[in-house]
Amino acid sequence: MPIIIISSDSYRTGRDIGEKTAQAISYDYVDREILPPVCEKYGVQEEKLLKALEETPSFLGLSSKLRNRYLAYIQEATLGQLLDDNVVCHGLAAHLYVLGVSHALKVRVLSEPDALARELSSEAVSSPEKAKKIIKRYEEQRKNWSLGTFNLDETDPSNYDMVISLAQIDPDEAVKTIVDTAGYRKFQPMTYSVRCLQDKELASRVRVVLMERFPDVKVTADRSTVVVETKAVKREKRKRTEAIKELAGSIEGVSYVEVHVATDIFRQAAESAR
Questions:
Q1: Residue-wise pLDDT tens digits, 195-206
Q2: Is CATH 3.30.1340.30 the classification given to domain 3-187?
Q3: Which of these, 59, 81, 96, 219, could form a disulfide with 203 (CB 3.0-4.6 Å)?
């Protein structure tokens, strides 16, 4: 059976649809309840993980470096859960990092506009025009967050297999539609798709380990082969390559590590100017 990934413009709405969908087909439901074990494992406050999922970097908030690290922790934990199959996942941004996994049904659920505006605003929503402004401002925030984090616009319908608006569709009908679609042949697990998910999970584990010393790393995996991309000044390239191979090679499931180190032209220029 496929994995079902629920994304929504409202956490409350997405959770409701996700839980009902999981119950309807006897799936496990994965949501932000997986965050406390992540906090314990990495010594991070849950509040900071939630900020990483919801806020763009700012001077007074999380830096880009910390946000990326916290999201890497969440991604590692989430992908580990998705390997089990028969899972409905919501609230962990998985719709932005399961691309290429064909047995992952990605669903975007849009709340009834007036209800969403009331949820987002601490003030009374006095008119449809005000509701539209509130929703538009929120959508821009989410667009900026997803583009800045994964270079994907989570408000873009083309990033999903299905978009359901609850403006005129009852939530129970939405759940039925999701369940029916999950039965389509094209969403059933295939050897290539399962391996794709396994590769993403392995890459996420390697990235978490490497990010402690090398925050800029990009990691991909193909079975047990891992490819790491990073930047360094010329004098550091050999040392960094050796360190990355040692760290990544010690991770379970990795048999070969390939490292590509590009020249960090900005640091190189700064050092040359001294």
A1: 999 999 999 999
A2: no
A3: 219
